[in-house]
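Lecture 7, part 2: worked example. A protein chain together with S-adenosylmethionine.
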Amino acid sequence: MPTFTPFHRDLTFLAPLSETRAARLVRFLAEDEPSTVLDVGCGWAELLLRVLEAAPGARGLGLDLDEQSLAYARERAAARGLSERATFEARDACEVTGTFGAVTCIGASQIWATTQDDDRPMDYIAALTALRGLLPRGGRLVYGEGIWSAPPTPAATAPLAGRDDEFVAMGNLVQMAEANGLAVVAAQEADLDEWDAFESGFTAGHARWLAEHEPDHPDADEVRALTARQHTSYFDGYRGILGLAYLQLVAV
Ligand SMILES: C[S@@+](CC[C@H](N)C(=O)[O-])C[C@H]1O[C@@H](n2cnc3c(N)ncnc32)[C@H](O)[C@@H]1O
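Predicted complex, written out as structure tokens:
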């Protein structure tokens, strides 16, 4: 099995998220000067680190199962003088309890899924209910999750879960948030440029590998096939159909 450079080499976040949008989300989370900030499914926690920079009185907790991402999060925290205020724990985030002044959860609703099947509908309500339970009234939440930007087609669903009800449209998601004790301050979605940059990040490591190895290397066919599958899934499949909603929410 060929090994590739880690995604953080090519991606700032493990989500379709531009610098402009990230700055807006950070401002929203830091504005009330929370004393505690939680990032569930934090990955390498770039957003959490930026919130801690913007809210100098805050302590942050990042939870993820991926040790390699957490190791990089700790390295970045140390390089930015944030180690004293940032804690990263490798554990299942569905076990987290307590209340936090600000919470972020981007692309990680599967944490609260009732089944671990890959082909289930997204359980937004389980995630929103759990996240609401971690906030006091007035606490802020950034919730980022997949939605349908356009009606799903067979070509779009085939490389995903293969079902039209895997995701909902933005309007449905907004209603779910409101029905679960969360007022919507802003509801926006990633644009195509953010998606293209994100998807490119998945194949950039393959391109680098191909440039560094001979074309007849025993693993080269596999790398070319991985790249082709990713490109077909996205460009011929879910590009412009799979979206990513960013909800800025306040607990009410
Ligand atoms: C799409 S990534 C998003 C990472 C990060 N929020 C970002 O935007 O850069 C989802 C993350 O959720 C993590 N994750 C999945 N299930 C988890 C669980 N049960 N507990 C903690 N983290 C989990 C994955 O390891 C992955 O890093």
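The chain has one domain: 13-193+242-251. The beta strands are 36-40, 59-64, 86-90, 102-106, 140-148, 182-189, 242-251. Keep this in mind for problem set question 3.
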